[in-house]
UniProtKB/TrEMBL annotation:
Cofactor section: pyridoxal 5'-phosphate
GO molecular function: transaminase activity
Keywords: Aminotransferase, Pyridoxal phosphate, Transferase
Family the entry assigns: Belongs to the class-II pyridoxal-phosphate-dependent aminotransferase family.
Protein name per UniProt: Pyridoxal phosphate-dependent aminotransferase
InterPro entries: Aminotrans_II_pyridoxalP_BS, Aminotransferase_I/II_large, PyrdxlP-dep_Trfase, PyrdxlP-dep_Trfase_major, PyrdxlP-dep_Trfase_small
Keyword field contains Ribosomal protein: no
Domain Aminotransferase class I/classII large stretches: 36-358
Pfam families: Aminotran_1_2
Protein's UniProt keywords contain Transferase: yes
């Protein structure tokens, strides 16, 4: 009796890998005072995007345009490429799932970094791929090691986020371009550029969408402040982009999300405003860390990793004590990155609350 799961699904853990702040709030029976754990953009979307979404709401009885035509046209103009080189989907997370589904059969090798963005790994496990992980070098992902391991194991996919989550570190465009040039035959580099709008100029190599060795993933969740609208896009060679049509959810985008993303893209002044706010928040987080004798790592994202000065056990206790004081933060999963907690760029009020809680949390954690 009952459903007959595939062997693959039966073999996967039943645990939920992503515990959201809402789940924690329900468990605590109390809301957080500052939501600084999910690298959301607390400065919000462009007011023009909000207006566009409000206007689109009355048309929500209609499915969204399955081709995402207008958004792809606008993105193509924005990046100086063709719409045939762009696929829009349900955030980078959704697009990563489609990409893995297209390329990874059970037993296929995939390479990523130990402690890198875990959603990619979740999809690889879900399609039966075999993950090979290389360590970070210092607090950076290591392009040379990723390429070397990919060549060794015959990987079909190589994942790198630039800038990186959870450390906020980044590689310059020349390093990434050298990595693209070194992608072994038969492999594809997934370059996750979720935070690129918040990174210094010179972080992203030029877009060469006829290059079959790389697919670039971008999102409206971070710089554009639309994480809850779930709009991401990938840019790559037209044949690879067309292949998404075989399996993607053609009605995955709502009209509201499409309208919001289109208006957000058109409001580059708002993006510049957000960039300035995020830069200010990064500086403030670094000062709060310094006031407490801790070191903030340089960041090219809307979050800052703060080195708690010892091992993962101490950082986990600091995190628990912050959560107990109503500050939602997260931290890296593996050593040695887990000596840090990770704090999203917040508004002044959010960071005031963090600044008040941190000294007490540290004292309690060190007891
Ligand atoms: C490196 C990285 N990639 C992708 C995402 C998710 O992006 P999206 O909201 O577009 O699914 C995140 C979100 O935290 C991220 O840190």
């Amino acid at each position: 009796m009952g459903p007959r799961f595939t062997h693959l699904i039966e073999g996967l853990p039943a645990s939920v890998p992503f515990v959201g702040p809402e789940t924690q709030e329900r468990a605590r029976s109390r809301p957080f005072a500052a939501r600084l754990g999910a690298n959301e953009n607390v400065f919000g979307p462009s007011p023009r995007a909000i207006a566009a979404m409000q206007e689109a709401a009355s048309g929500a009885w209609m499915y969204g345009d399955p081709e995402n035509h207008d958004l792809r046209q606008a993105l193509a103009a924005h990046h100086g490429i063709l719409p045939e080189n762009i696929v829009v989907g349900e955030g980078i997370d959704g697009l990563l799932g489609y990409l893995v589904r297209m390329l990874v059969a059970p037993g296929d090798a995939v390479v990523t970094s130990e402690g890198a963005y875990p959603t990619f790994n979740f999809h690889v496990a879900g399609f039966g791929g075999v993950l090979h992980k290389v360590p970070f070098r210092g607090d950076h992902e290591d392009p040379d090691a990723l390429i070397a391991r990919a060549a060794e194991v015959g990987a079909k996919l190589i994942y790198l986020a630039n800038p990186d989550n959870p450390m906020g570190s980044w590689q310059d465009a020349e390093t990434i371009q050298r990595m693209i040039e070194a992608v072994p035959e038969g492999a594809l580099l997934v370059l996750d550029e979720a935070y690129v709008e918040l990174a210094p100029q010179g972080t992203a190599p030029p877009l060469r969408v006829d290059d079959p060795r790389v697919i670039r993933m971008r999102t409206f969740s971070k710089g554009y402040g639309l994480a809850g609208a779930r709009v991401g896009y990938a840019m790559a060679e037209a044949g690879l982009i067309r292949a998404f049509d075989k399996i993607r959810n053609h009605f995955g985008m709502s009209r509201i999300s499409q309208a919001g993303a289109l208006a957000a893209l058109a409001d580059q002044d708002w993006l510049r405003h957000v960039q300035a706010e995020v830069a200010g928040a990064r500086t403030r987080i670094a000062s709060i860390a310094a006031e407490n004798g801790l070191t903030a790592l340089p960041s090219a994202t809307n979050f800052v990793a703060i080195d708690c000065g010892a091992d993962g056990d101490l950082a986990r206790r600091v995190l628990a004590e912050l959560v107990a004081r109503d500050i939602f933060v997260r931290m890296p999963f593996v050593s040695p990155q887990d000596r840090c907690i990770r704090v999203s760029a917040g508004r002044p009020d959010d960071l005031d609350a963090f600044a008040r809680a941190l000294p007490e949390a540290l004292a309690a954690a060190r007891k």
